[in-house]
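Hey team,

Filing this mostly as a record. A colleague (T.K.) asked me to run one chain through the structure pipeline before their review meeting, and I want the input and output archived in the tracker in case anyone asks later how it was produced. No errors, nothing strange. Just documentation.

Input sequence:
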Amino acid sequence: MSDTTPAAYDDLLDRVGRLANVSHASDLLSWDQQVMMPEAGTPARSRQLSALSAIRHDLLTDDDLGRLLDDLEAADLDDEQRAVVREVRREQERAVRVPTALVERISAASSEALTAWREAREEDDFGAFAPHLTELLDLKRRYAEHVDPNRDPYAVLFEEYEPCLPFDHAADVLTSLREAVVPLVEGIRGSDATLATDAFAGTFAADRQESLVREALDDLGYPWERGRLDVAPHPFSTGTTYDARITTRYDERDPIGALLSTIHEFGHATYTLGLPDDAYGTPLGEARDLSIHESQSRLWENHVGRSRAFWERFLPRVVEAFPGVGDPSVREAYEAVSAVDPSNLIRVEADELTYHLHIALRFEIERALIRGDLDVAEVPAVWNDKMASYLGVRPETDAGGCLQDVHWSHGSFGYFPTYSLGSVIAAQLFDAAKAEIEGLDERIRAGEFDPLHDWLTEEIHRHGKRFETNELVRRATGEDVSADAFVDYATEKYGELYELEA
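Output structure:
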């Protein structure tokens, strides 16, 4: 920072700090609703969250904040200060176009929809959730129209989660990814290779699974003094650099699902915890949006947690935790966690390849919903048809189909593409890390995760929002955001596993 900071900039930081604290309080209430809150607490919680969203919106759209930003455009600022002004300006310009009453209603409707979604999924009753989905779609269309009535509303909503990567660039990356994954999955379907998919067959008590995933978090270096592990219907993480919390879920038939899910959420948490403490409450202390956030979780889950090197270290822990699992070899464990299963219905349990077909399905459906090309009542049938087309399997229930994800109950339309974008960025980052960290596989095998963590902190975490998405990736890897590294990685890995011709 400059030695002579303009008074207007100090005023800006004070205002932005209040915005951040309101946001973090709202996030904590949302965490509580999904993890701890009694079932009957929704009416009060929806009002609390609505009030906080209105307070934040009013702070963000205050005329004095706009004048401060105008004054600072011409001020003598250093690069970091200009980045702060840029990020606040982007959000402020968007917010002033949206009425506070609409922001309040979206927050309240989302809180109500979350409870409705949870109950609808438990009862396998899409009809009970449909009115809430219809309302949220209407509200978010109105939101997008206020932001920019002349643009594709879905592209406008996508920018809520990835404001720095142009939608056309993102769509091109997603198209390249789909065009590579589909024939690779078809080749795997036709392969004669037999992988050890039953290496972890059996029944595994949830308490033992929890002990195992806590051990994994210890191994990876999760600082418990700044976090916690809980159970949620849909795993997620949330928090700040001082308090980054993880949730997971346990299936007694699948101990590896909880392990990989926890490692995934660790990736999110370690990014949040890697943000600079001294920038808390400013854009320099915030993550660079969801594509980068997802790159951290997918890197740790897939490039570490599904690697042979990781299983050479961790397999003895699994065998010790679950004596009934037998004595699988490292190769068998590696095959079990890497195997492609197009018949799997659940996105969060999907393998690295078909995962992206799950994302493509959701991306296409929610874009059609927002554009008004698809009616809510048609969602279950269209979902099932796309599952049959892309993955060769048709859900027997809506709970295992269109009700499985929590995102639409949050009104998070435009979120899903960031999962695939995060995966391709993860491959780019891991390639760059391997090139710069000598013997990275050997270090993972030895349980030495600090070099990778330190590299990611240096290249990604510590910058907060100083750089926009593509520049951040280019600085770390020398390349623009692209699907190429992921395609090369997947082709090599699955070509070897399934004995596919090059």
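Quick notes for T.K.: The first strand starts at residue 229 and ends at 231. The chain has a mean pLDDT of 95.
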